[in-house]
Design a protein that fits this description.
Layout: E1 2-9, H1 16-27, E2 39-45, H2 52-63, E3 69-75
Antiparallel strand pairs: 1-2, 1-3
């Protein structure tokens, strides 16, 4: 079983890496990009029977800094 955890900075938190990507895209001639938010995807290979609640606990304790980041879990 796999789980994908999508971690993004919360709205209102400055994203300097996203801003650098937005600026670079403009420099490459890609117009119309008004903003970029960069995040990460963590893929977990889980033992059968691992629950979404267990993955949520992993996120709360390690995978996401819940003060400034939000996360979304997809179980497959």
């Amino acid at each position: 079983m796999k789980a994908h955890v999508h971690v993004m900075l919360k709205d209102g938190v400055l994203d300097p890496q996203g801003e650098a990507v937005r600026h670079a895209l403009g420099g490459l001639g890609f117009e119309g990009v008004n903003g970029v938010r960069q995040g990460k995807v963590i893929e977990l290979d889980l033992a059968e029977g691992t629950t979404e609640a267990a993955v949520r606990e992993m996120c709360e304790k390690l995978l996401a800094n819940t003060v400034i980041e939000s996360y979304r879990i997809e179980m497959a």
